[in-house]
Amino acid sequence: MISSSSNLSSALLISFLLTVLHFLSLSPTSKATPTYSAILCPNISTYSPNSTYQSSLKYLLSALSSAAPDGFFNFTARPPDPSYGLFLCRGDLSSTACDDCVAAASTEVLRRCPQSKSATIWYDECMLRYSDTSIFSTMDITHNVMLAGNDEITTLRSLQYDLSTIRAVTNNFSDDNKIGMGGFGPVYKAWRLWKDGTPLDLMDPALEGSYSRNEVHRCIHIGLLCAQPDPDARPSMAKVVRMLSRYSTMSLPQQPAFFARSRTTSSTLQGLEPDWPMDKPMMLPVNEESIAELDRRQHEKLRPI
Question: What are the record keywords, sorted (predicted)?
Answer without folding.
Answer: Repeat, Signal
